[in-house]
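Quick one:
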Amino acid sequence: MAKQFRGTGVALITPFKKDNTIDFEALEKLINYVIKDGVNYLVALGTTAETPTLTNEEKKEVLAFIVKVNAERVPVVCGIGGNNTSEVVAQIKDFDLSGVEGILSVVPYYNKPSQEGIYQHFKSIAEATDKAIILYNVPGRTVTNILPETVIRLANDFKNIVAIKEASGNMGQIMELIQKKPGNFTVLSGDDDLVLSQIAIGMEGVISVAANCFAKDFTYLVNAALVNKFDKARDIHYKLLDGIHLLFTEGNPAGVKCILSKMEIGSNNLRLPLVPVSASTETKLQDFLKTL
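Output:
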C-alpha cells in the first residue's frame, strides 16, 4: 500500500470565488493541470485546502468532485484529522471514501497529548478503517511532535498505517526514523525546500504545496532524486528555491493562490482568517514566475 504514495503528492488548494463560495471550475482546471504535469497522486482536504474553514458538507462536496474529475488517473488521498479522536473516527465512517486510496491524518493539535495519547489516537483511527493511513507530523502547527519510537510502534502494530508525512524539519529525528522503520513503511517529506536533501537520506517522496503551481519542475526534481540523478535534481532545486520560500512568506496557501491567479487557475481569494499576500510579496512572486 505504501509504495503508491512514493513520488510527488500535491496538497490541493480549495479555490474560492469572490463571494467565498467554492470555485469548482478552477478546481477542475487545477486537477487537470497537476496531473498533466506529472504529479503521482492528489491530496484533498489537507492544510493547504483551508480545511478548517470548510463545513462538513463542503468537505464532502470537494472530495467527491476531486474523485470525479480525477477519474482514477492517479491515487487520491483525503485529509481527515483533528484533536477529537471520536470525531475523527466519525468523519472517517461518514465520508464516502470509495474513490480514495488513503487517509492523511495529522497529529492531534492544541491538546498536547503524550506519546501514549498519540498512539491511542492513531490506534482508534487504524481500527476504524481498512484504508491506508499516512500519519502527518507537523509540530510547527500542532505543537506536539510524534517521536520515531511512536511512529515505529504504530507501523509495526497496524498494517494499514503505511507512511508518514514528516514536516518537523528535524533531520536527526528523521534519520533515526528512516534507520529504524519497518521496510514496508514509507517516510515522505512535508517540507518542499528540504525534499532534495531528505530524499538523499532515504525519504521516498513528498506531499507538496509547491506542486500546485510548479508541478512539472517540482515533480521532475523529486523523480530525478529518487533515481539518484542528484545533479539534475539539484539544478531544479535551486531554480525553484527562491519561489518556494516566497510561497510561504505570508502563510500557506496565500502564496500559492497568488501564483495560480497569475496562471489563470482560479482567483486570489482566501477565507478568513487568511488573507491574500501583500502587494510587495505579490510583486516578488510575479517576478519569480517570469523566470520560469
